[in-house]
Amino acid sequence: MRLGLALGYWGRGPNPDHLDLAAEAENLGYDSVWTAEAWGSDAFTPLTWIAAHTSRIRLGTAIAQMAARTPTATAMQALTLDHLSGGRMMLGLGLSGPQVVEGWYGRPFPSSPLTATREYVDVIRQVLRREAPVALDGRFHSHPYRGADGTGIGKPLKPITHPLRADLPVLLGAEGPKNIAQTTRIADGWLPLYWSPTRTDVYQASLSELPEGFMIAPMARAKVCDDVAEGLLPVKAMLGFYIGGMGHAARNFHADLMGRMGYEEEAHRIQELFLAGRKEEAVMAVPDAFADEISLVGPRERIAERLELWRKGPVTDLLLTAPDPHTLRVLAELNS
């Protein structure tokens, strides 16, 4: 099982520790470093900055939001960074949800998420292969554009720049069972938002036909500390925000996932509190047991014991949101 460092997206401003953490991860032998985006900092610019200050570690987006860019624009950014980094780029993509797509990006959430995802990946693959001009008679991503408001004179094109790799890895941040199953067919890997090494049966049906070399790369908070309850607070804060705030009360993919993992009543309670403006109570309503099983928190010996559960399952890459060099170092030693 390879280790990666997941830096996420910025808060109020750039995190001054991210570059040092990425350099330390590379020195410790970590395989990859990943950036993200929500509705603030973008995923590609910080990753390019990290690429310029490293030489070996692979670079991934976990995730870049599909609604933020057309598929050809995303392919352009990926192939550009792949060239600049010497072939280290991995493209992680996700749809996000209706609240973000329509509220932030000002465009409709696709009525058929699976079709929209499949078309998006298809266009990117065509760009990277550069075998012919990009052409797709799609429902969401037609190339050339054939909408009634178009000119009708769009021309099929292929990239001027020759991509460094036609097989640049494409990973998807899928959550629903059908979306995960499709991911195993059209992508090179899957980026689970929550992964419990003791509940792999939740995904068993969706992962029944994994192709050879398919990446399963969940993110997990890691923190070497003496007080487990205190160490879990950032995990609970993240869960409270995603389950309570990253979606609508009637349509929240994160809350649905928590329900499928055995915490349906708790997920509803977190949503109710968060949407009522009682955010601190929503965070505290996150069960410690759920926060604990999707993270690696506590003394070194406890983390070592729990890490074995992750290593026994189908996870190929464990992406750690580790906040300090000491934790990075301990996980590297335990996983060696």
Could you please describe the fold and organization of this structure?
It is a single chain. The chain is of the alpha/beta class and 336 residues long. It is 43% helix and 13% strand. It is built from twelve helices and eleven strands. It has helices at residues 18-27, 44-52, 71-84, 98-103, 113-129, 177-186, 228-245, 253-275, 279-284, 288-293, 300-312, 325-335; strands at residues 2-8, 32-35, 58-61, 64-65, 89-94, 170-172, 189-190, 215-216, 219-224, 296-298, 317-321. Strands 1, 2, 3, 4, 5, 6, 7, 8, 9, 10 and 11 form an eleven-stranded parallel sheet that branches. Strand 4 (64-65), helix 3 (71-84) and strand 5 form a beta-alpha-beta unit. Helix 5 runs parallel beside helix 6 (177-186). The longest helix is centred in the last third of the chain and has 23 residues, at 253-275. The protein starts with a strand and ends with a helix.
